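Researcher: Please predict.
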Amino acid sequence: MRSGSTASRFLVIKLADLGDVLTTTPALRALRLRYPTAVIDVLTTRTGAEALDGLDSLDHLIPFEKSAFDHLPPTPGAILQALRLGWRLRRARYDRVFLLHHLFTRGGRIKYAALLTATGSPWRGGVAEGRPWFLTHVYPEAGYGVCHEADYWLGVVGLAGARNPSPRLEIAVTEHGRTRARQLLAGLDREPARPIIALYPGAGPYSPARRWPVDRYAAVGQRLIASLGARVLVVGGPTERGLGERIRLIAGSAVQNLAGCTDVKTLAAVLERCDLLIGNDGGVMHLAVAVGTPVAAIFGPSNDISWGPYGGVRWEPGRSARTVVLRADLPCAPCLYRGFLPGLRYGCPSRDCLHGVTVDAVVQAAMEVLALGRTGRHG
């Protein structure tokens, strides 16, 4: 941990959930590489703080729940909370502030303008159209579907000369998490010839429209158990445990339901021991990428160019890659995160873009990814 009045002080702002926060880790690494003695603080949510805790690319985490400001005007209690935060940030006297958010909505611009102004920093960088008055340095906004979100944030820190020659998502997996993962997966590592495959049928609370049908996940699990003798886990948050139970009831007792049984660090350690994650667009997908586990990601309404597994490629039969995206190419897709608008959070009623991804395609993609093998599975 760095200290001292002569050290530069930076603040990085990312008030978001698990997956969104993980996309900032290449930018944090770029800042640390360029400014090894700087004090780097991150303002984020409690879930974001859990994900970033332990990384040597930052010094201090400042948890702040933004949910009270999701709807304007905020309550008097929320305003008091914001004033206290603003005073704390002002007293820190940050030399540079990096805003890692898009500014597509009027409410978002108002909130982040107030927050950046409150810091009093003479250098405030972010991504935007034009040059908003509350930013002194701007990385050009080109909308969703132009580049990955992680690359946008690399562009923002690049305004300060920071570069990351080998960008990747990062998380610090704890020994406590690994111990807990070994307990949850007791006995599975005794048969290394049988792959451990995780299924993620959830998608987080923001957009359930991203969920591929549960019965198709169950069918994929059944096929991989029958053909490979795979050990299948279902992972996700507490609200997604019911999805795991439905898969287990359909696919049989060979499926282990861990949804809701892990915190972020334990889930990272569980994924670290898996040979493959098959899952929807969501934080768990990004977590698997961060620990180096191959991913077969299923996308529908959401934008895989912006939010896909970092470094992944669109899957085609016979195309070799450790991380792939499966989606049905329809002219209306994606309808979520498209252009300069958030888009349709709940998609359309039919969701043909999801239903167009078949069980056969997912199984074939999984077999091809597994055939490539993986390096460094943690024992």
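Model: The CA atoms of residues 239 and 360 lie 28 Å apart.
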